[in-house]
Amino acid sequence: MKRDWTTRSSIVLIGGIIVVINLIGLTIFGRLDLTDDNVYSLSDASVKLAQELEDPVTFKAFFTDDLPAPYSANRRFLKDKLDDYRAYAGSNVQYRFIDPGQDEEVAEEARRFRIPPVQIQVIEKDNVQLKNAYMGMSIEYGGEREVIPVVQDLSTLEYDITSAIRRLTRDELPTVGFLAGHGEPNVFQDMPSLRQGLGRNYEVVEVNVVDSTLDRLPDALLIVAPTDTIPDLHLRAIDSYVMDGGRLGLMLNTVSADLQAGQATAQSVGLEPVLEAYGVGLRTDLVTDLQSSAVTVQQQSGFFNIARQIEYPFFPIASRFNPDNLMVSRLREVVFYFVSSVDTTATLPAGVEVQPLVYSTARSATQEGFFFIQPMMEGRPNYSDGPFILSAAYTGTFPSAYDRSRESVSSRIVVVGDGDFINESVLGRIPGNIEFGLNMVDWLVQESDLLTIRSKKIEPRALREVNENLRPWIKYGNMLAPALLIVVFGLVRWRRRDARQFVMRDSAEL
Amino acid sequence: MHETWILTKRELRAYFDSPAAYVVLSVFLLITGWFFANSLFLDNLASLRSVFDIVPFIFLFFIPAITMSTFAEERRSGTIELLMTLPVKDWQVIAAKLVAVSILLVVAISLTLLYAATVATLGDIDAGAAVGGYIGLVLLGVACSAIGLFASSLTRNQIIAFIIGFAIIFALYLVDRVTVFFPGWLSGFLQYLGIDFHYQNLLRGVIDTRDVLYYVSVTAFFSLLTAYNLARRPE
Fold this sequence. Notes:
A: alpha+beta, 8-stranded mixed beta sheet, 13 helices, 26 strands, B: mainly alpha, 12 helices, 83% helix, globular
């Protein structure tokens, strides 16, 4: 062999070149997304948004430097995503990573933006230690700011970023209306937390019916616990709102329950025919669940009155949510206050689809017709009938309740069998409930292209049903065939070689 | 180029004339087949994940096993003298041996395409992720082979070559999993060094130039070290 360039200095030189190329490659790189849904590329909605930016959007990622392994992937993923946005927006997307741990001023800024430090596990000096780390981001546009406190769920990162930019770049906020005039609770007095949360992204208004039309046409109309009968004219106004593509959030009490009096009676506000036309079924029952909140009851014990906390099955705590609907998939608990079940078994009008959202536990039951709601009641029902659906989402083109020939443009309706769960005057401030309310409005108002980002995820794909008899053949065929193929190839080759040698020997003898 | 190809053919013939290649190949295919087939109906998923997860582990043993003899055996039997007298350059020898090992690997990997065909018939496979996985396997295999060749060039004892090759690949395998034990400023660097880290990225179905560049660099770097070794200790 000729020795040519393998001197020590040339090795060092070429090694150095390899390192430099890798360093350059870290900054200049390209990616080819081969997955079917282009899961790892920006979706069209994000690309369009990035291209249409008129002023620069500034991302400030508050990230602790040198995060250990599982978290460092978040940083790379975020950086890749931001690079993707920048690829389409050019100089209108600027980002930088800063470390609040290094600079007190930056830490102060993070605090001001409400980006909390999160605790992560690191190993230092042979000890597992908890360390504070920052993994948040602020997004600024034209003097306004949106914050993603913790970049953790990589599957929703693009959605979070894109919706934040949309909120920032929108000239006009979408409106959320609360129907008023039929004994509904007041959104400004009874739902301060929900109103505050909504206020960040929406204009919150009260909607009244004036001269048989809604006085405002909000992007989403919420009907929360009306107690008075809604006049026919008003129902027609709501129906015509839906026909024009209006979105409805219905939080209704079909049973009026009075805990003090220990009484409950069925209650109708006249919405039934409209709901029936849309395919929305809400039963006149109460769901009782063994997983429930407690109430305080006064008990007579001898001369004393004793206050006692007891579980009250009429206040179910729902912890099972539809994982496929982003409105609820990230919720953990929603507490209800006398909730009725949603009937999703009814035949739906053509073009309407239903998706259950919230379930009671398996250990739940329903009461109908005759209600015993005393906390201390004897003889509990058999809690094994559940789960029941407590909320459902309907999408599609709804037929009008008044004009059978009319059909709505594509719209959305959410129904919850409880009108009090977001009412803070009744239940107090329960974070999970408010989140559900906020998500509901987000989902109702959302334009469909944004939802494609949300629905984008790496779903496991199941195999088709395979005949039991065929399975062992497929299984062992795959297990053994490749190895057999190699062995057969080897044998054939060996035989041919052997034959050739034989011939050669033969000819040598001749 | 022509010389390299002649040498490659010589290497390949040597592989397929000895029973060793068949034993190693069938063991490889039996193990992957066992892991794939056993989990196929259990997981009931149209995915090759079980294959892509196990193959790097098998490579850990498989590649040092097929590369351990490349230079060590030539040294032991003295045929390296013969190579040296041939009018070829040392990079041509290394390239030929690397190409031959790579072809053997590709044969092994391509026989697992039967699994892909099975999954594609039984369900809706994410073709992109599968293609990414196969590209990842080939890149990973070639890089590991370059390491194996390097190990073999260090010694005339095949067993020692195997152990050294295994140790280097194993170290690169582990390096991104142990980043928590190192100070923070090193973790990014160590992660980049990790041979499995880049493979996991490719597995998702995203071909990132950074990952490809890493494998090409590892292959080039260890081939360079091999060349250096041969030049230093010609024997």
